[in-house]
Amino acid sequence: MDFAIEETEEQKKFRAEVRAFLEKNMPGGMEHHVDPVDQPREQYELRRELGRRLGKKGWLYPNFPKEYGGSDMSADNVMVLSEELAAVGSALPPYYDSGARMGAPTILVWGTEEHKKRFLPMMFRGDIRTWQLLSEPGAGSDLAGIKTTAIRDGDHYVVNGQKMWVGSAHGADYAWTILVTDPKGERHKNLSWFMIPMNLPGITVQPMDVLATGGEGGAGGGCKNAVFFDNVRVPAENLVGGENNGWKVATTHLEVEHGGTGRLNDRRVIYEFIDFCKETHDGHRIADDPDARAQIAELYIEAEITRLWALRNHWLSHAHKPRSYEGPQYSLRRKLSSLDIAERMLRIAGPYALTTDKRWAPLNAAIEYFQRDAITSLHPGATTDIQKVIMARRMGTGGREREQAGKLK
Ligand SMILES: Cc1cc2nc3c(=O)[nH]c(=O)nc-3n(C[C@H](O)[C@H](O)[C@H](O)COP(=O)(O)OP(=O)(O)OC[C@H]3O[C@@H](n4cnc5c(N)ncnc54)[C@H](O)[C@@H]3O)c2cc1C
Question: Residue 218 above 70 pLDDT?
Answer without folding.
Answer: no
